[in-house]
Please model this.
Amino acid sequence: MGSGKILVAQGGGPTAVINQSLVGVVLEARRFRNVERIYGARYGVRGIINEDFVDLTQETSHNLELVANTPSSALGSTRDKPDVKYCQEIFEVLRAHEIEHFFYIGGNDSSDTVRIVSLEAQKAGYPLRCIHIPKTIDNDLVGNDHTPGFPSAARFVTQAFAGANLDNASLPGVYVGVVMGRHAGFLTAASALGRKFPEDGPHLIYLPERTVSLDSFLADVKGVHDRLGRCVIAVSEGARDASGAPMASRLVKNLEHDAHGNVQLSGNGALADLLCEEIKSALKIKRVRGDTFGYLQRSFIGCVSDVDQREAREVGEKAVQFAMWGDTDGSVAIKRTGAYSVGYELLPLDAVAGKTRVMEDEFISASGTDITDAFRNYLRPLLGSGMPDAFRLRFSPVAKVRNTA
Amino acid sequence: MGSGKILVAQGGGPTAVINQSLVGVVLEARRFRNVERIYGARYGVRGIINEDFVDLTQETSHNLELVANTPSSALGSTRDKPDVKYCQEIFEVLRAHEIEHFFYIGGNDSSDTVRIVSLEAQKAGYPLRCIHIPKTIDNDLVGNDHTPGFPSAARFVTQAFAGANLDNASLPGVYVGVVMGRHAGFLTAASALGRKFPEDGPHLIYLPERTVSLDSFLADVKGVHDRLGRCVIAVSEGARDASGAPMASRLVKNLEHDAHGNVQLSGNGALADLLCEEIKSALKIKRVRGDTFGYLQRSFIGCVSDVDQREAREVGEKAVQFAMWGDTDGSVAIKRTGAYSVGYELLPLDAVAGKTRVMEDEFISASGTDITDAFRNYLRPLLGSGMPDAFRLRFSPVAKVRNTA
Model:
């Protein structure tokens, strides 16, 4: 082949392991003698348009390993959602730099960008190999058992609810934790893995895959609180009311829209606050607290799944191998091959791009406010090793001597 | 002595290591032959009034060790703030059960409860040894180098801001993180320990120990954003405006007051949301996000300082030793004896009870929006071992070929 130039970029929201995939690409590409230069684009596709490239061939393998273990996109990212014209511009820059392999690490929107760029190259008869590398904490890419980044975010959510449950058991009341996930409830559902004892929370889980009226929400909360004297609730930011609209979109005054036309659901505490107000006023419960996990759940340093790290590295490596040994563009996908083991496939870009996976029905309980054992079995191995565990005292009551009535 | 009965209870907000202190009391007390029974009161002082006691003598040492590593109060806690009458009732219950040693793990309010109960016992001529065991993530107990629970919460805040900074660097904008701490800024100040590179955030830190007008806040943010194209801000929930009032108290409509007469600052996202709105509207910055760390910072399971664990265990052990070998009531205090090493003293209850420590001036920069090296040196050893570290690529720019103008 010609130039031997590779370009890699990172798109969308950061994850705890997105740099593993980047480093997987770089280190694997170094093994191929025909690869002369490995460029990185800063700030995703915007960096391509701006020709903001760095030469990753001139980075030490030692520092690359350290960066691999650092969360958030080391090259920078962007929320730009390229349309066809934008993708044509991307292609023109790639051609001008004689790039022969384009690797883009990202979610649904990023896979669609790769798809359009791939089409442009084909139309122009330019030999460009385009590979999409999966990444999203939302776990909403079709064709994948799960996506890199999700297991570590799920681990954060699991650990957060395990702690919130202990806090709530110690100082009883109602606790609402709002979790990211616009359309897919996987991350919110991960809250259930924090449970250990039968009375542990979250006692109620509200997913975007099901609708709930405010009245029925309040009845659910009252039921748990009457029974246990406390209630821990996990709510997806994308939880929908009876009409199917996001509850947050009715509650928040000035809704911000991003470049993808999506309502901005994260970055504020409005949904948690409003649900807490409703619970206080309707149920007359005094101690009601809400937390919005926000950016902590995707960027917290020091809460990462080792399984996620390994797989994120491998999808980067496999992307290069598919590009070098294969002859088609595509999207790398994780397939579960055992309990627990994975393999990797290259899916057609059409099969992944712009599609959204949501939680399968078998993962959601009949009540719609809990998860099933199938989901527990699905998620548990992804959380990785060294999960912290909660224990409690086994109480031996002492007889009263004063209030013995 | 007579009955050989000990009572231990936990008060106030949970911490990641409060059960270490509980277990320290129980296991150390088992070494004394004159101790016949070790009772625990469920839900703090309320459990004493209700005679809701459990017999910790009938708990295995193995399970106690597991509970020690579990965050949040294993016996349960309370927000009740006892007045003199309440404390007299506590004393009457202790006397009725022939309790001879009373250990209460908690913060300022708890130490005041111990002080009053101690006085009641003296007035009645009843031989009761009363020891307060320090605990608070706010680090606001006087007479202590620091308090158990603070180091682990500080570690969470440090790690959270290290991650938030990476996220913000990847997708530039303004990020506001609101941290607990009504009067003392120690926990908010811990955010600075997440910085590594000169441009890292938090770029601005707002502590309750200093006041700031909204105009000056906005000017600070604009200055950083103009310089770096982004800005990460740490704000204490107790941050005060120019009049000295908590900013949150002006912003939040229906302010809740707790039994201590304190305005409820935690448990909602109002302060972060309002500051974000102000930044958006006044500075015309598009990407502005706010997180309120809320209960995550005090109860997250799996983010704990090993130094904190060790010291929390030791204050429990020392409490029993002071009670058994000494002849005064008091509050166990941590003193720094080396870099890094600590010792323990028993302070008079009067010296600690109801007093609030705030950040020393030497810990706050002249600007009022940053911390000093003295604070960095003070906090670093408390965070413990195995702190995650962030690395970045060393960029080698590639020459442009198209936009070469």
